[in-house]
Hints:
It holds the Pfam family Glyco_hydro_59. This protein is mainly beta.
Amino acid sequence: MKRKILSVLLLVTMTTALFSATPMNTASAASTDFVLDGNNIKAGNINGLTFKGFGVLSGNSSSALLMDYKSEHPEKYTELLQILFGGKNPIMTHVKIEMGNDRNNSTGPDPSTMRWENETANVKRHPGFQLAADAKKVNPNLKVSILRWNAPGWANSNDKIYTWYKNTILAAYRQYGYMIDYVNPGVNEQTPNLTWTKQYAQRIKTDSTGFNNAEERALYNNIKVVISDEVSVGSFGDDMVSDSTLRDAVSVAAYHYNTDDNSLGSFKQLAESFDKEVWNSEAQATFSNSSFRPNNNMKDPTVAGTGIGGTNGPLEMGNTVIKGFVNSRRTHFIYQPVIGSFYEGGQYSFKELVSARDPWSGWIHYDAGLVILRHFSWFSKAGWENESNTAGVWRAVPQASFTGATGTNPVNGRNGTPSYMTLASPDKHDFSTIFINDSEYSKTYTFKTINMAYSGNPSLEVWETRAADKGASFNSNYMKYTGTVSTNSSGVYTVNVKPYSIVTVTTLSNSGKAEFNTPLPVEGDRPVLDTDKTGSMQDTRDNILYADNFDYSSKTAPVIAEGGQITGTQSYIDSRGGSKSAIPRYASDRNGAFEVYLPDGSSNYILRQQVNQSSMGLGGTWNNGNPITGIGDNRWMNYKASVDVSFEHNSTEGGNNYAAIGARQQGGENSHYLNGTPYILKFWFDGGWSLLVNGSSVANGNVASGSGGVKISGFNTAYNAWHNISIMVADNKVTAYLDNTILYTYTDTTQRLSGRIDLASGYYNTCFDNLKVETIDGYAPYYSEMLDNLEMYDLSSVSATKLVYGGSWAHENGKSMYNYQRSLSTSQGIGATIQYSFTGTGLDILGANNGSAKLEVTVDGRVVNSSVGTMVSGNLHQNFTLHGLEYGKHTVCLKVLSGTMVVDAVGVVANIAGASEIPVEQSAYSRIEAESYSNQSGIQTETCSEGGEDVGFVENGDYTVYNNVDFGDGVGGFQARVASATSGGNIEIRLDSSTGTLIGTCPVAGTGDWQTYTDAKCTVSGVTGKHDVYLVFKGDSGYLFNLNWFTFSEKTVIGNLGDINSDGQVDAIDLQVLKKYLLQLGEIGDTKLADLDANGEINAIDFSLLKQFLLGTIISFPGEAL
């Protein structure tokens, strides 16, 4: 990310020579003519043609980890809120919440707000309701809607559905202060019951009981009805056109994905003639990481590479908006999901606009798809018009919109036909036209405007987004102001649109606005989940990868106030559902409901699977399967996971009432079942156990009876007794334990070497406590880095090379949801190579392979294996491994000798746990480069104007770590080379952890620019010997400062600096003594008194400083600050 605001010198008027670069392919670069007639801007149409922007869908467990971001990294969460919902022209204007019954409805379940009929509705345990509440603090005009995937078992009639909905709606209002705006009374992606729709609408309008006051009732009675959320063209269009009572009942006609109308054009008629809202209530976003998409070499049809376009890309998403409006008058588009806050590998992975999967580090990826949507929302006024039609919401103009893209979902624009959409203010004073070219051909558009409210033909600002030019930062061409375009003598505008780009032309003056010249945040490193024994703090020094005792009673969560600002804290447990039903940390359910629970009469919180089929029954589901939740990092490799378990139901129910722990879960098509996890230990309270591999038992027994070969004397078979189950994975060996007794060790011939843990049970109340994941001495605990196959460069402002491919490869987007970031690289013949330089002990290739490839392996320039085979593997698992290198920097090159190799991801193997990795000592009194950190949180590195790199993108709470710094006998000062374009902040200097002993605080002031450096200094004390130094950065919101290097100075000298002869005065005699010393004609008793700039050296600079002091041009020495 660049920090400098783009210069206003860019505001240069351009003529029709705009975009004059030679097109990649001119075969279809034909001109397209259209007219924007102000008489076609329908100001009187306040629902059907008003452009409402875009919406966030929270459902299917897609927001499972989002509240962890809020609590663990609130600054990242609030930044997310501002990016999506903030500003004058927010991208997202609506949060749609899917309700469920704790059973899977694709990626995972939605927590039921009422698990039994007499339960008080609880919306706090559903992340969607809390997200909507926080989003409304940023944008009070935000709309909120609900519908259901499935109902809880007790809600088996329309009357009970109404009760469930009403109680939930009122709970949200009473808890968070907002009333739901829209309700679909039907079931997601099902044909609507039109009779029930009318009945529900009538009940909503006339309900008069159960309200706290008249205002609450009035707001409730004003809720509007949506139908039908079907998965293709709505089946009800003709009914709404012909049935006035249905039109009176229903405010919004909505269906999913398909961009087209029915054969009679009913939805166009509803929008234009009956002024009804028509939504694409679940639309396709981006199916990739657009940052690396330009590395594909797909030909579609003839030119290799599709930039940010191509199959399932952000330009395709944009064309879906255009075609949805042109063909069926959709004016609102909701994406499922916008925020992917669940673990990779789940069903429908990598189809989001924001990836937020690592709440322990705050890592977030903002996709270029958001920039594409900004080309619409930032150049219009989107939203809902008020009843008096005075809000000024812009109208979409059918007569000035068109697309020739084929298909309905996905929409394919690679044919090079025109695709554009025009939005205009209802007063006809302003307009914007969005052009999308998702093809390899250049396009030229000519158009004119007539009957507008302005005089003459104003010049139009031109904004473009496309892939970076070669060698430039990946986002250097995102939302780029390229100048203005004016009409010719005939009043005609000409706009050329480059291949695989989006262009917006507008009468609005946006080029001078800071937000238009500020790119989206760029994700930095992704630290692996490796915490201390509490699970709350990152700590790589112990043997704990993660731990959780589920007692969050001392934790707090932030309070989000008006404007999206953090104004205080609240109870962590209460904010996430309460003591009987709280969202646990870092858990992503795929079936069932795992929540933090405080048993009656106890002070010990536990994790409890809440769905009890005996008392609740079970509602419907999308993917069947028993309760299962994932916790942790998919980069974990070798570890021992353990948890205490107990039961509340005194029957094994024929084997269906069990507790289980799993290892190396990566996801995949069976991830909602136990057999989707490679290794599972199941346990029954009667002493029964079974070790499952891919869902099949490889060993089983009963420790009470001794069957299976293992007996534990005195084993307690009471259903409510606590026992410890654990599973250890070390390379290809899997060992199951019960109460620390080994049950069985299995050696797997298939490589499944990485993945997170699972906890699982039957549909009965089952209790878990004291989860612990530990490293294993002698084995690497995780991949220190995992790269997508298309990650050929990093995302720094000056991009650095990452993966290097040689020979012939097919680099493809648009692959399976179970391919990492939906991309693959496949070798195309003998001699294809892949190379990577890294620090670690090995390198693995992950992804589905047929095992046909033979490879030559070169390490650090030496062939270490002239021919080695690869392995048959499934999605997300290893097909080639290279382990056992000495820890350090290496370059590995793999060359295909025969067969075919598929690369989905590349894993760098970390150092061996327990290995004697003695960090290199560094003197505290040497200059320590800021980017040479051993670990970090939140920051990124970038090119420094003083040479090398600096640590940048520093925000409040970020930190860097420098291991094994030797302070000797004591330290007196700290000096840092810093720059800041803001008001700066503070550097806290701490020992051995980010909350360790504070030895000094160094204030950093603004310098006027991110690359204008100065020295910041402060005194430090209270430290000797060797320590890990943590620089913890503190300040207000936003970026604080850059750090180039730092150093320490020894203990403060005794005596006055400059009093070199120690006679109590600083005078000409001291200057003579210093001169003789420098000429090697004399000695100085205490050299510290002569080191006037405290840099550890005595040189001509000190002589000059002393001379200036004696002449009165300076009144103190730089070293005095230290």
